Amino acid sequence: MRMLLVYPAAMAARLVRPAPWIISERPDQARDNGYCFFRYLKQKHPEQAVRYIIDPKGKDFAKIAPYGKAIPFNGWKHYFYFCYSKIHISSHVGGCVPYDNPMARRMKKAIGFRDVFLPHGVSYGISEFCLAKYTQIDLFVCSGKPEYDNVLANYGYTPQQVAYTGFPRLDGWYDIHVNPKQVVLMPTWRLYLAQRPDTVIRETTFFRTYASLLRSEALKAILQRYDLQLVFFLHNDMRKYVDAFQTDCERIEIVYRDETYDIQELLKSAALLITDYSSVHFDFAYMGKPVIYYPFDREEFFRRQYRQSTFDAEKDGFGPVALTESQLIAALEEAANGGFAVAPEYDARMHAFYQLHDSQNCDRVYEAIRRMRQK
User: DSSP readout, 88-102?
Assistant: First the structure.
């Protein structure tokens, strides 16, 4: 294993040209902050050498192919550029790493690269796996001011390791075409369910709650009355349980495969978002669109997955909070009856969170990385 990593590093030392930055998301995806930043670099900073790591068999490979700078995931070039590049940029902690290589991260000091974390989610709680004591992150990018304050106060990073720049994907949140009839129901994952091989999903509160909602006659009536379509979109790490969910309502679409929608395009088009804790509600609010929160299991969720921070949906959120199915359906009807307008109090909260609200997020990320390289 060591030879696989050291040999490419030795080859790289012979090269004259500057080592490129490497960027990744999930192995088969190019649709989030990583891809948006890669595209920005190719268009606005062609002088900066950069490569994108992706599985050539993945659907999103076609988005990278026109740039001609793709690195096949887990191939020999992946190993080579992992060692050669000095800047690793990813939407996941420990990204840019080939599979089956526990040695790779341990060799960071010897190889001498730096990790830039462009999270796919907003760090509004305290995520244990993102804490400085567990990661090797050199630059942690934040999208909102309270998020930045939270990471600095609770994650263990120095001020030099955290940047309040905004997320690259937010630069594209201005050119949107909203479908006034589309509602998205997007729960976040449950680590304690997704990573336990003995999980019987039908016995969980998570399943019983959403299965009940999808079969609700009251929900069906609201969708019919206001001519709405509801898209039930499970988190990628919960998708393995999707076959357990069923509905007999033709106005409800259960998304069985991740490739059915580009999640960024889905968020842009939907008129309303319903979620429990998914940080996509921040993106939705950034676009000035309404959100309904459904934290039905918050005691269990914050005990078993995240430690709560200062963000409280009822005090700081961008829409009403429903704790029961009947409250959720009532909130949905009120939103539909009001034409999915955002109440002034929620609009004010959005602007307090996103104090940077422009199309220069990629510019700020680029400059933050340049400053990091000079230190």
Answer: EEESSTTTTPPTT-H
Q: Region 326-333: what's the mean pLDDT? A: 98
Beta bridge partners of 184: 231, 273
Lowest mean pLDDT among 3-12, 51-60, 172-181, 235-244: 3-12
CB 157 within 8 A of CB 151: yes
Same domain, 50 and 162: yes
**Torsion angle of the four alpha carbons 373, 72, 57, 197, in this order, in degrees rounded to the nearest 10:** -70
Residues 204, 262, single domain; the answer is yes
Q: What token pair was written down for 11?
A: 């080859």
158 and 48 share a domain?
A: yes
* Alpha-carbon span 306 to 154, nearest angstrom: 12
Same domain flag for 196 and 344 = yes
The amino acid at 207: F
Q: What are the tens digits of pLDDT across the range 74-95?
A: 999 999 999 999 999 999 888 8
- Both 20 and 36 in one domain: the answer is yes
Domain that holds residue 312: 179-353
Torsion angles phi and psi, residue 292, rounded to 5: -125, 130
Stretch among 3-7, 65-69, 301-305, 336-340 having the lowest mean pLDDT = 3-7
- Domain total for the chain? 2
DSSP string over 86-144: SEEEESSTTTTPPTT-HHHHHTHHHHT-EEEE--SS---SB-GGGSTTT--EEEEEESS
Which residues are CB-contacts of 123 (< 8 A; sequence separation ≥ 6)? 130, 142, 147, 150, 151, 155, 279
Q: Are both 278 and 364 inside the same structural domain?
A: no
